[in-house]
Amino acid sequence: MKFKIQIYILHLIIMGSFLLLINSCQKNELKQRPSLTITAISNITSATASSGGSIVNDGGSSIKAKGVCWSIGTTPTISDNKTNDGTGTTKYTSALTGLAPGTVYNIRAYATNTSGTGYSSQLTFTTVALAPVLTTAAFSAITTVTATSGGNITSDGGSPITAKGVCWSTAQSPTIADTKTADGTGANSFSSAITGLTHNTTYYVRAYATNRIGTSYGNQLTLITLADLPVITTSAASSITATTAISGGNISLDGGATITARGICWSTTANPTISGSTTTDGNGSGIFISNITALLPATLYYVRAYATNSAGTAYGDQISFTTAPFVCGNTLSISHVTTDGIAPVKRIVNYGTVTTNLSGANKCWITQNLGATTQASSATDATDAASGWYWQFNRKQGYAVGPNPVWTTNSISESSDWLPANDPCTLELGTGWRIPTHTEWTNASSGGAWGSYTDAYNSVLKIHAAGTLSSGNGVLDSRGSTGSYWNSTQKDASSGWILILYNSFSGLDGSSKASGLPIRCIKD
Fold it and tell me: FRET pair for 506, CA 20 to 30 Å: which of 216, 247, 311, 417?
């Protein structure tokens, strides 16, 4: 009996253990990851798409997150990009955003409960490709017929770039149907050489890039090519006299820009430019005539026509001619310039001339001071126009009356007469002209019986009281009351001989070489 009781108890224990095992298995089977299906993909654009999911089984616990996840080239998980579309077992719709155009994506629906995350089967879709996006590069190296530009492709639109470059036209919004460059493939930035342009012309330029979707254009830029220099020839010289001649030019091409100045330039050295002596003969293309004045007699001149536009100044072919010999008694027209360090003022002066034997032999003299624009009107004429310019002894630089001091040299000590290389008469009036000697001034004063500046003025030379510039600081002194004129002979190391005239005296005396005195010129 006791044995039967023990058997019975054993059966109860085994039966209880079995029931406990069954109950535990049932509980484990109830706690699973969710199972679900994915909704077909729709509304695909270049950057978005729609999908979603349906939860078939919640796995025995509440759904606390659900959505879709996606990736490129791998099996997506919730560690990748995903949507979060709420909780619960209801069917849901998911909006995918931030996608790249023309790209293949893998996608799965997901749902998460306390046991973990379950996934649907995987779908694959491709976003819509776009046309490229790019900008046009700024211009550089602009010339009359070329320029450099290019582009920067910021997006290939999800499709390989098969062509790129720049296109241009004289009309706005150029396309690849117009003139263009071809600068390879790929989505990197590029440089484009624009050629075959016309000078001084406005062009519109855009970068372009092509993929399988089509061709896109960058921002439009405006390019203006540089103007070219004009094309000009020089006319032969004619009507040549001792001091004048006629030439001119023919502008056959304006270089694509307005001719703003034209004329001729001349010099006693080859290849003259507009920085020297010139005429100004209007503007525009075509033929023009130029009157050349203030030339030196018996002198070889080089002449070139010139024309100026926005690109610069062009010169014609160089011609040359020699002026006729000067005949004393005629007007001597001289163009003084400041670039050679002699004349202090740029001006044209018409000098009267006369032949006289006052110096002891027949010589040609100018009848006004060097630099004076007019002959003196009286012995005491105190005007700038009649007085001309002033020189220190053996110095070629002349001085006009102006702000003081006009010089910094207030003493000179050198044992030399006035050197021919420094003689302003020779340098300004031409070969043969020079400063009178001590003997020539002595002969003029005594031979002309000059006893005052009035007598000197009444002579054919019209000498007058033009005054001096002080040796100390260049201040004008004694104009209208004293006449002092250099000769080419020094008195000693610090002084030179001068003709001096007062209202009751005429003769030769010495003056500091640092003083500024007017000059009369004589020609052999």
Answer: 417
